[in-house]
Amino acid sequence: MKKNTSDNHDHHGEQSVSHNHNDCIDSALATAEILCVEQGQRLTKVRRRALELIWESHRPLGAYQLLAKLAEEGFNSAPPTVYRALDFLLNAGLIHKVESMNAYLGCSHADKDHQGYFLICDDCHNVMESDYQDIHSALIAKAAQQGFELRAKTIELTGLCADCKMPSEGGRT
């Protein structure tokens, strides 16, 4: 039940010649299967489908959007079911929560220990994940110097993506 879609972006903020979303979905699901086995967890049908739907959207997806899609497909339509699946996927490192949008995005680096930040377009609402290990280390050190205990380590930067800032060349401005 996957969409056969492709476009000219990837999930690292770089342009690519041809991007097939099905490859992303297949890769994310294969990574999820491996990580679940390694962690002694089960990738249940609802968890698997939730992850697949998040990757299909290729944009942050809210819990109630996910709930509606799952309900259309005959899954349990109770909010706790979706939140349990999202909590599982978050804890397994398979998705990220984009706090400012209260939405979820597939993790492009789920198979690697990493710290990321998000570039969020104010116009099209596309979100790109990038790795920031050096910045992360510097921020942790600075917080420690100040005696500050970090509880969340998500960095979200907002602005306009390359497509949206292009005037009259297919951009949205």
TrEMBL record:
<feature type="binding site">
    <location>
        <position position="164"/>
    </location>
    <ligand>
        <name>Zn(2+)</name>
    </ligand>
</feature>
<feature type="binding site">
    <location>
        <position position="161"/>
    </location>
    <ligand>
        <name>Zn(2+)</name>
    </ligand>
</feature>
<feature type="binding site">
    <location>
        <position position="124"/>
    </location>
    <ligand>
        <name>Zn(2+)</name>
    </ligand>
</feature>
<keyword id="KW-0678">Repressor</keyword>
<keyword id="KW-0805">Transcription regulation</keyword>
<feature type="binding site">
    <location>
        <position position="121"/>
    </location>
    <ligand>
        <name>Zn(2+)</name>
    </ligand>
</feature>
<dbReference type="InterPro" id="IPR036388">
    <property type="entry name" value="WH-like_DNA-bd_sf"/>
</dbReference>
<keyword id="KW-0479">Metal-binding</keyword>
<dbReference type="GO" id="GO:0000976">
    <property type="term" value="F:transcription cis-regulatory region binding"/>
</dbReference>
<dbReference type="InterPro" id="IPR002481">
    <property type="entry name" value="FUR"/>
</dbReference>
<dbReference type="Pfam" id="PF01475">
    <property type="entry name" value="FUR"/>
</dbReference>
<keyword id="KW-0238">DNA-binding</keyword>
<dbReference type="GO" id="GO:0045892">
    <property type="term" value="P:negative regulation of DNA-templated transcription"/>
</dbReference>
<dbReference type="GO" id="GO:0005829">
    <property type="term" value="C:cytosol"/>
</dbReference>
<comment type="similarity">
    <text>Belongs to the Fur family.</text>
</comment>
<dbReference type="GO" id="GO:0008270">
    <property type="term" value="F:zinc ion binding"/>
</dbReference>
<protein>
    <submittedName>
        <fullName>Fur family transcriptional regulator</fullName>
    </submittedName>
</protein>
<dbReference type="InterPro" id="IPR036390">
    <property type="entry name" value="WH_DNA-bd_sf"/>
</dbReference>
<dbReference type="GO" id="GO:1900376">
    <property type="term" value="P:regulation of secondary metabolite biosynthetic process"/>
</dbReference>
<dbReference type="GO" id="GO:0003700">
    <property type="term" value="F:DNA-binding transcription factor activity"/>
</dbReference>
<keyword id="KW-0862">Zinc</keyword>
<keyword id="KW-0804">Transcription</keyword>
<dbReference type="InterPro" id="IPR043135">
    <property type="entry name" value="Fur_C"/>
</dbReference>
